[in-house]
Amino acid sequence: MAITITPLSERFGAEISGVDISKPLDEATQQEIREAQDKWGVTVWRKTGLDDAAHVAFSRIFGEVELAPRHPGKPSRMPEPELFDASNLDIEGNITDNASIRLGAAGNRLWHSDSSFMDIRAAQALLLCHEAPPHGGPTWFADTRSAYDDLPQEMKDKLEGLEATHSYFWSRRRAGYPYTEEEVDAKPHATHPVVHTHASGRKAIFVGAHTRDIVGMDREEGRKLIDDLIAWCTQDKYTLAVHYKPGDMTIWDNLCTLHRGGEYDDTEYRRDMRRTTVRAAGQQEVARDHYTTMFSAAGDTPFSPSEETRKRVLETL
After folding, report:
1. If you write DSSP's letter for every residue of 150-189 in order, what string do you get?
2. Overall pTM surpassing 0.85 (yes/no)
3. Helical H runs in 150-289?
4. CATH fold for the domain made of 4-316
């Protein structure tokens, strides 16, 4: 079954149609979809007809689908264990008024690569819209391969061999969550190359809001470099926005894109988005619940804050 690919720009992003992904696909079609994803980095699918189970099933054509973290004392709305809840809704399906969760979620509006704070990196992410604000509640995407291609050679040489540390709790601090530097120091980090070679054979920049420090570099100098690279990757010529209606889905490759949630009034409009995450190929074997393990080890989080942290959150608002 041939698919139809409509590019959204010369080098980045495409809308795909002509195939019913709510049903099982033959291997040739699956391969065609994977090749399109590798080439374009972001693909957009309209009126997919996917329910939660079909969403997870389709995700498996890209590889191992991760289990979403489950936080002690916080039941999930999600009917499938692989679904990450990317909504502004509480367990009853109402717009959440939990200040800690809302402030923690503000980090999603910073340019980032999902799960870069984990030792095992995420490749494809598949975000399905179940309910959207009237204006579509967009997601913005940035092309970190073209951004690398266009770097001056002097900067490419500077980045060669550099590594950076990544922390979920650092991005939340950047978004306003009241962690101190010392608290972030005590929480889990991961280390990854600043530039890596993508499955397409092209090099990509791998930094974002979770990126905290450059290994071996003065902290202030390293953070300036990180901020400069994010700013370079998110120039208008490298970015595009996708707006949603229920049933629409985006797939993006976290190893060659940055993304962020677009602005909308999360106290007035419902936005029910559900995401699956596919583990990067060739990554070492770890327990499938390694996200839950990481957040449990971190203790105090925006999902399960201590009473002291809860008070600090309220003081920041």
Report:
1. TS-HHHHHHHTT-EEEE-HHHHHHHTT----HHHHHTS--
2. yes
3. 153-159, 168-174, 181-185, 219-233
4. Double-stranded beta-helix (3.60.130)
